[in-house]
């Protein structure tokens, strides 16, 4: 279940966009982080009510690269880019950017979760150091 109802999100966003109070004041009043309220407002302005709904989605490498390229070309923040592409987890963009710089588009491809085959095949044999003598 979502921590915040759609009705509460809409109420707070409308108050914020109407200029009735700032993000900090509204956040304190409704127990919402100001950054989250700003993200809701940005998503609402671009996508309407659907921007406030809970959403689960996996993104492919092409979509991730498109979002990153748009962000870089337009000098946007993670929050602005997330709102534009309706990505609910803003921090995902930072992770995608990090992965892209490490391994290119291949690193953006959705992978299997869990240990890699290399990790599963390693044993837990202790490596002996060159100094096995016991001292008396």
Automatic annotation (TrEMBL):
Chain positions covered by the region annotation Disordered: 110-136
GO molecular function: sequence-specific DNA binding
Chain ranges of the Insertion element IS150 protein InsJ-like helix-turn-helix domain: 63-115
Family assignment from sequence similarity: Belongs to the IS150/IS1296 orfA family.
Protein name: Transposase IS3/IS911 family protein
Organism of this sequence: Mycoavidus cysteinexigens
């Amino acid at each position: 279940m979502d921590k915040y109802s759609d009705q509460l999100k809409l109420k707070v966003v409308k108050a914020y966009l109407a200029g009735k109070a700032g993000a900090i004041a509204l956040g304190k009043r409704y127990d919402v982080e100001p950054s989250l309220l700003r993200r809701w407002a940005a998503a609402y302005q671009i996508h309407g009510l659907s921007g406030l709904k809970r959403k689960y989605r996996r993104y492919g490498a092409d979509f991730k690269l498109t979002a990153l390229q748009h962000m870089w070309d337009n000098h946007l923040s993670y929050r602005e880019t997330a709102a534009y592409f309706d990505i609910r987890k803003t921090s995902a963009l930072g992770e995608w950017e990090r992965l892209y710089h490490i391994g290119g588009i291949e690193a953006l491809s959705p992978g299997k979760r869990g240990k890699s085959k290399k990790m599963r095949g390693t044993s837990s044999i202790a490596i002996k150091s060159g100094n096995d003598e016991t001292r008396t």
